[in-house]
Structures are given as C-alpha cells and as structure tokens.
Amino acid sequence: EKADIGVTGLAVMGSNLARNFARHGFTVALHNRTKAKTDALIKDHGDEGDFVPTTTAEEFVAALERPRRLLIMVKAGEPTDAVIAEFAPLLESGDVIIDGGNAHFEDTRRRERELREQGIHFVGTGVSGGEEGALNGPSIMPGGSAESYGSLGPMLEQIAAKAKDGKPCTTHIGPDGAGHFVKMVHNGIEYADMQLIAEAYHLLRAVAGYSPAQIAEIFRTWNDGRLDSYLIQITAEVLAHTDAATGKPFVDVVADQAEQKGTGRWTVQVALDLGVPVSGIAEAVFARSLSGHAELRAASRDLPGPRGTTLDEKAAARFADQVEQALYASKIVSYTQGFHQIQTGSEEYGWDIDLGAIASIWRGGCIIRAAFLDRITAAYASRPDLPSLLSDERFAQEIGAAQEDWRTVVAAAVQHGVPVPGFSAALAYYDALRAERLPAALTQAQRDFFGAHTYRRDDREGTFHTLWGGDRSETKAG
Ligand code: NBP
Known about the structure:
single chain, 478 residues, alpha/beta, 19 helices, binds nicotinamide 8-bromo-adenine dinucleotide phosphate
C-alpha cells in the first residue's frame, strides 16, 4: 500500500503531525535523518494508524502515492534547503513538497520559484498550535499554488483544528510565500498579545497590590468574558501555580528574562520594510530584548522612580475592571496593526489574501485562538473590504467605550513607574489615527529646511520648496 503523505523530520512537530494524519485514516510514510527517531515513533505509536517507516530518501519517495505529497518538518533555515536538495531530484512534475517549518517567507518565495521550474509544487505552510496542536489539530496556513491546495487541502482540512462552528482552521492563503507570511504575522500578534497580558499582570500586582493567585482568579473571570482566549487561560494557570521546591509563586522563581526565536523580530523587520506601523508588536519584541539585558538592568536599578502607593481594596477592584478595558482596547489595536500588515503584504506581493478567512482559521488550534477572532471574522463577513478593523462599527464602539479607562490605566502606570510599552503604544496609535492634525507637517517642514525635501500643501496641488537659506519665498518644485 502506498502512502497518502510522507513526513520527513520526526522531532516533536513532525511526529505529532504524522500521528495526526494517521489517526485520520491516512497512510503515512516516515523518514528522519537519524533513523532512531523513526524507530521510536513506530515503537511508541505504531499502533495508532498505518505507518510506512523508511530509512533512505529513495525508499521514502518510493513509498509515496503519486502525485507525491511530502511534508518537511525539520529545523528552519539551512536544514530545509538541505532536505529539499536531497529529495527534489527524486521527485517528478506534479509532486508536492510541503514545508511546515517556520521558514521566512522570502526563503519560501525563493524555494517555490526554484522548484516550480522543475514542475514541483512547493507549499510553504504555517503551522501553529505547538506540539499539542500538531497532534490534535493545529491551525494550518498553506501557501503555494491553488492547484496544490486542490489535492492537499482536503487532507489538511481533516487534521486541522475545528472552530466552534465546525469549520476547519485551514484555507489556501495565497501563492508562494503567503502562508509563511501570515504565520509570521500570527506570531507577531502572539508576541503583542503576550506582552499586553504581561503588562496587565504587572499593573494588577504593582499598582493594585494583588498576589499572583488573586490575579489568576481575575484572569479566570476575564476568560469568561470577551477576553476568552487560550493565552488568558494559560496565564491564569501559570499564575496559580506554586513552585514545589520553594513554596513561592512559580512566576517569582522563573528568571525574569524572556527569550525569542525570531518570528516576532521578522514581523517587525518586514513591517519596517513595508512601512506598516506595527508599534504594538515592535514594543513586544523590544520588551523581550530589554528584559534580557541583565547587566543594563542591574546597573540601572538605583535610578529614582515615583513613590509607590498601592490602592485600597475597593479601588483595586475598580482598577482591575479598568485594566480589562485597557487590555481589550489594546488588543483591538494589535490585531488592527497585524491585519494591516497582512493586507499590505498581500498587495505588495500580489497574494490577494482574504482577511476574513485568516481571522476564521485562527479561531481554533493556534496560540492566539480566542473568542475575539469570531468578532473579527464577523467584521470581515459583513464587510469584506473593511479598510481597517477600527473602522468596523462594533470595534469602534467597543474601543470608544474603553478609551477613558484605557487612559486612566496608562496614566496610573506612568504615575507608579510601571512600564506599559504595549498599552501606551496602542493608545498612541489610536490617538494618532484620530487626530485631525499630527505634527507630521512640522517634520516635513524641517525636512524641507535642512534637505530641500519639498512638501505638499493642503490648499493647492503640487510640490513646493521654501528658500530657507534665502528670502524664504516659496518655489514650485519638480
Ligand atoms: P526542530 O526544529 O528541533 O528540528 C529537528 C528536526 O530537524 C529533526 O528531525 C532533525 O533530524 C532535523 N534536521 C536538522 Br536539525 N538538520 C537537518 C538536516 N541538515 N537534514 C535533515 N534533517 C535535519 O524540530 P521541531 O521543534 O519539531 O520543529 C520542526 C519545525 O516546525 C521547525 O521549523 C519549527 O520552527 C517548526 N514549528 C515548531 C513549532 C513548535 O511548537 N515546536 C510550532 C510551529 C512550527 P535529526 O533527528 O536527524 O537531528
């Protein structure tokens, strides 16, 4: 019996996806550079479905039904190129290579272009949900040709998570690198979500004086409302956890430095190139890097700050409600920025991405899954050409209702010396978009002064330059 799909790269993600396919009735060929991983998978889970273990690349390719579907789940970067170089010569026109690793979308574009010349469909695919999602249903973001999705899509739809309405959390995102681009922005939004949650915790602790266990309770109540999400839920669990060795709150014994693997950084780098203001994501990436500068932090510990007073019980409870408003409003801004980046990338690369479909497939399986995504899905369903999430009536109304509390929270943070780069960047974005006039006119005038960079006027067509070094008369430029 030939295999419906083959998986090469059987570390946690690859083996769990292979098992997920097998549990859905597909025959799965297995391959890993180091055979021991293949053997371990067969030994531990071989009874879960139909697996075809193989040792060599030739054996692996020969085990696959044509057109062949070959899923690569190796470490992103050079290993992916090495594996493609190993397998591509053994494949034929019409075969499909799926890369489920966290590749940079520019690498995916290059690989797709190179393999297309050989007639091979290359499907760069974002997979979110961690190990657990890979096994029980991830959110899957495949790029590549529409033709490849025709044969691959129905399989992915079976193994993907299902949203509450039963819809599978996968769809054809768009050509070449579109899938990995969307996965990248997903991770950027994940960084922002996590940073905002961390700031809410910090405020509840430092300003309201709550303990981690009390904050866990507050997060649990939030999780019953509009903030219902995987990340809020796991945050409550982490905060409620006590360290067995010391009896202290677990969060107090973990080294206070956040690491990163790079997809958040990519999101910001690409956003800078595209000129998209994803300030919330950028602040989240910077907050992690700042936390890692242990020496810089130690050297600055004695700098003066405001005299702290914590709130009384009643004021603390009121403050917790305000923090919920601030968190929700900031979250709307993060998603507004992330979707703006996807929209801009889609236009730049000609991907024609359906933003509503993206919101829909993030409703289940992935790390940012949340009730909130139902609302984004609904916003795009009622208006597919929505220029920005903030122009959706319901989001505009909600953020408007939250804005007073949001300001109170940011002001309290400033007064108490609690850094809230996420909350305040989101609020600055909101206020900048609202502003009738920004000081951008002044910036442009300065540019004209020192560099003759010219300016446009609101009252007349054309481009102008003022003779700053001369009689300051205005000339028509270019
Ligand atoms: P790793 O990222 O740890 O990669 C380990 C796998 O890569 C092993 O199978 C290893 O083979 C193989 N490999 C390496 Br390393 N270099 C190779 C080479 N030159 N040729 C052939 N194979 C090579 O595994 P993972 O954590 O399961 O992640 C797999 C992919 O999925 C990554 O791209 C990751 O970014 C992505 N991803 C991970 C998550 C997650 O939550 N972990 C979520 C979403 C996406 P060996 O056994 O012979 O060493």
